[in-house]
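Researcher: Please translate sequence to structure tokens.
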Amino acid sequence: MKKCLVMFLCVLVSLGMLFANGTQESETQKKTKIRFAVKSVGKDYELMKEASETYESLHPDIDIELVETPESSTDRLGLYLQYFEAKSSELDAVLIDVVWPGELSEHLIDLNEYGAASYTSQHFPTMVQNNIVHGKLVAMPLYTDAGVLYYRTDLLKKYGFSEPPKTWSELEHISQVVQAGERAAGNEDFWGYVWQGNAYEGLSCNALEWVYSNGGGTIMDKDGTVTINNPKAAAGLDMAANWVGTISPSGVTGFVEEDARSAFQAGNAMFMRNWPYCYSLGQSDSSAIKGKFDLTLLPTNVEGKNACTLGGWQLAVSKYSKHPQEAVDFIFYLSGKEEQKRRAIKGSYEPTIQSLYSDADIINANPFFTKLYDVFLNAVPRPSTASAPNYAQVSKIFYSYTHNVLEKQMSGADAVTAMSMDMAEYSNK
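Model: Translation complete:
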């Protein structure tokens, strides 16, 4: 009798467990899973994980799965294209570089069809415009970046200058004076200006700034017409070539971002062109220039044409997603004011929502953000949408010929002529 009772109880327990498991599986099955491709390392992944968990708590019917992607942007783009070209529904939402909307647009949904207009008005107009391809809004801005000019405040004062340069001519003059003075004082490694001159995407960013700020346009018009072949663009490239070996080291034609930062942060340069990420590193305890520098807009030779090349990352939804509405709702949340504020405070990621640059909590956490509002307001996008889907080829032509000018292998005039001819193959006109 006792054995029978034990067996009966075991059966009840087993049935209870089966019922409970069945209920849990049923509840899980009811959830909509959104697979979101993100960066695999660093603070960005940590913040995305936190955001996803918060979103799930607010939306119990949604399950967010973060898909880790390669660290290299080039490899990440290749992975996306593999999924998209196979029309795979494995990815619902993706994090994309600011220069990818044109290349990926055919695989992304038009967010305007999901009510994006009620969100986009909060963001910097140039960043929204960057994500419009053939009339379709294919991505929402998440955080931004732009080229800026770093300068030594202590040396500016030491050599009798009251403010940072507003024109390239002023930058050249101050560089020459300070470089000569610091070398005479014993620092033979000191240079006036360091930047990114290697033959890669970073040079496209620098060269676009030289060309635009000299009145030479933006390589291509918005409609895809190649505009680079003009005297002002040529003069902008020649201007930079004259810096090499004079106010900039000869080796600058091999510099990427970290090379320039190393020289500036070691106290061996008056000016540096780089991205905002260098600010907090320069203020670290190990930095030779802690408390001795600031940042501002890059110079211009044409009033109102300060050119700070636009960078940053965006959020998009795959055209092949089985749950587009849910994925869109999620990226609207991520790109919204509350989440951008949290990312700015916890990770120093620059918001794309204009009003956040006057938010006291954000400024308290990142005092240098107040310097960036005008930078982002003046940010100039690369012609990634105008040349869609051929931006990679256009950029390579641009930085390759520019590098030849910097190496004194050809003149600016010859370079822009050659660029224009080679880019014609990829023009939308």
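Researcher: Any highlights?
Model: The chain has a mean pLDDT of 91.
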